[in-house]
Design goal:
325 residues, 18% strand, 2 domains, 12 strands
């Protein structure tokens, strides 16, 4: 069977994304082939800063030696400067993401791996942007779920980049049904888990304390869990968030559904930030991203850890193979 072909988008050209891609190109891969969607000058500048070889190839040429990287060019409007994101390059950043998504939708690529972007810089460049997850969901016309994962735990999110004041109003029965069904389907199809067990966190402290600390568990979460259990899903909860992540409990779960961003992600990042990845569940193709920011203070200094990008590529390749079976 041929190796899956993945689109690789470095993200913000003034951040660490380009140099992480250069590091990725230094060893041959046995799980996939990669095509970068990027500005060639930004990649070459990163390679020079790291004193590493880089040989940019036409996207149809195979990588055969350390430093080889097939490329589809997306030139920046202005030359990227390490540590100084430029709003004038926002169009190239978003254009590369959308072109890679187009390629995945056409079937030219089996999946997509993305580096970190600078949301504020893209908005300053005149492009309304809440995140790559939301961008790709809109492009594909799909409702999606954000999941972050490492070797210890998988955390799916009922709500993502939403102010805390708005979270309780956003969590209703249709949302929870969709998120749990999407997460369950992805655990089966993308992770090969035949009968996944999902732990569902409560919204309130102590999962509402039988209604004394909030009624969302009784009014919304518990009825949805009972409904979906009737469809055959193995759902545990709602659980208090402060004890659900204890190692003894986690061993019995294939994923945890958190009600909001900072309820579940601090635990995941503490447990293994370097190898964590960000997955977009529900797209018609696998999309896996790094679980860190652009780190402009590290850009061009050779200090950025490539572990998350390596994990993202490995994860995306594995999912692509499972989806092709």
């Amino acid at each position: 069977m041929s190796l899956p072909r993945l689109a690789l988008v470095p993200g913000e050209p003034a951040g660490v994304g380009p140099e992480l891609c250069v590091r990725l190109a230094q060893r041959p891969r046995t799980d996939c082939t990669l095509v970068a969607f990027a500005d060639p000058a930004a990649l070459q500048a990163a390679a020079a800063a790291l004193s590493l070889p880089l040989n940019l190839l036409h996207e149809d040429q195979p990588a055969q030696a350390p430093g080889d990287l097939p490329l589809r060019m997306f030139p920046n409007a202005n030359a990227a400067v390490f540590g100084r994101p430029d709003p004038r390059n926002a169009g190239a950043v978003v254009g590369a993401l959308l072109a890679a998504a187009d390629g995945c939708m056409r079937g030219d690529f089996a999946g997509m791996v993305t580096g970190p972007v600078q949301k504020a810089t893209i908005n300053e460049g005149g492009i309304a942007y809440t995140g790559t997850t939301e961008l790709l969901a809109g492009h594909a016309g799909r409702e999606v779920v954000m999941m972050l994962a490492n070797d210890i735990v998988r955390v799916a999110l009922a709500t993502t980049h939403l102010p805390l004041r708005q979270v309780a109003d956003a969590i209703d029965a249709p949302l929870l049904r969709r998120v749990l069904r999407t997460t369950h389907a992805a655990l089966c199809a993308d992770f090969g888990i035949a009968a996944p067990v999902i732990a569902v966190l409560g919204l309130n402290p102590h999962a509402g304390e039988s209604g004394h600390l909030g009624s969302e568990e009784i009014d919304t979460i518990i009825p949805v869990l009972e409904e979906l259990r009737g469809e055959g899903m193995a759902l545990v909860g709602p659980l208090p968030a402060d004890t659900a992540f204890l190692p003894g409990k986690l061993r019995g779960f294939d994923a945890v559904l958190a009600m909001y961003h900072d309820q579940g992600l601090p635990v995941l990042k503490y447990s293994g930030f370097e190898r964590a990845v960000n997955l977009t569940l529900g797209l018609p193709y696998p999309r896996v991203a790094v679980d860190h920011g652009t780190a402009p203070d590290l850009a061009g200094r050779g200090l950025a850890d490539p572990s998350s990008l390596e994990a993202a590529v490995t994860t995306c390749a594995r999912i692509a193979v499972l989806r092709s079976l």
